[in-house]
Design a protein that fits this description.
Helix content: 55-70%
Mean pLDDT: 77
Structural class: mainly alpha
Number of helices: 6
Length: about 180
C-alpha cells in the first residue's frame, strides 16, 4: 500500500461516488427546495428583526443600546441563512447532473420536512400560549410536547423527558426571578 495515499476504492465506494447508495449520494429535490424556502424565510425574518431592532429608542448614556444584541443575532441568522441557501443551490446543481439510476419521486413531504413543520407549529403555539398560560405552564407543555415528539417514546425516555423539562424550567425560572429579578409572565 502506498504511504500517504488514499486506500484503493472498493465496490461500495465506487457505487457511492456514482450517485448510488452511500454517503456521497446527492440530496433529493424536495429536500433541496425545502432548504431554499427555509433559507429565504429565515433571511426575511432576520431582515425584519434588524429593522425592528434599529427602531428601538436609543438611551442617553449607553453607547450600545437595547437594539445592539438583536441586531447582532439577526446578522448571525442572515449569515447562516445565506450559508443554507448556498448549500441548497450547490446541492441542486449536483443533483441536476445526469445519474444512471433514477429513484421514483415520493409523494408528499419527507420525514425531515414534516418534523420541521411540526416543530415550527409547536413553537408558534408556545409563543401564543405564553400570555394566557404564563411561563411555567406554557414552557412545561411546550417542552413535554416537543421532546416527546422528537424522542423514541419508550417509558425510560418519557421519564427522562419529564425530569429534564422540570429541571430546565426550575433553573430558568429561578435564574430570572431570583438572580436577575426579572419576573416572567
Amino acid at each position: 500500500m502506498p504511504q500517504g495515499g488514499p486506500p484503493p476504492l472498493g465496490p461500495a465506494d465506487t457505487r457511492a461516488q456514482a450517485g448510488g447508495i452511500g454517503l456521497a449520494a446527492p440530496k433529493r429535490e424536495n429536500s433541496i427546495m425545502t432548504d431554499k424556502v427555509a433559507a429565504f424565510i429565515l433571511l426575511a425574518f432576520s431582515g425584519l428583526t434588524y429593522l425592528v431592532a434599529g427602531s428601538l429608542p436609543q438611551p442617553m448614556y449607553e453607547s450600545l443600546g437595547p437594539g445592539f444584541f438583536p441586531k447582532v443575532l439577526s446578522l448571525c441568522l442572515a449569515g447562516l441563512s445565506l450559508w443554507l441557501l448556498g448549500q441548497a443551490v450547490f446541492s441542486g446543481r449536483q443533483a441536476q447532473a445526469p445519474r444512471k439510476e433514477s429513484a421514483p419521486a415520493s409523494a408528499g413531504l419527507d420525514q425531515g420536512t414534516r418534523r420541521m413543520l411540526v416543530c415550527g407549529l409547536l413553537t408558534l403555539a408556545y409563543v401564543m400560549a405564553l400570555g394566557p398560560l404564563g411561563f411555567l405552564w406554557a414552557t412545561s407543555a411546550f417542552l413535554l410536547a416537543i421532546m416527546g415528539y422528537l424522542s423514541q417514546r419508550n417509558i425510560r425516555e418519557s421519564i427522562l423527558i419529564v425530569l429534564i423539562s422540570a429541571v430546565y424550567i426550575a433553573v430558568v425560572y429561578y435564574s430570572f426571578t431570583r438572580l436577575l429579578r426579572i419576573f416572567l409572565p
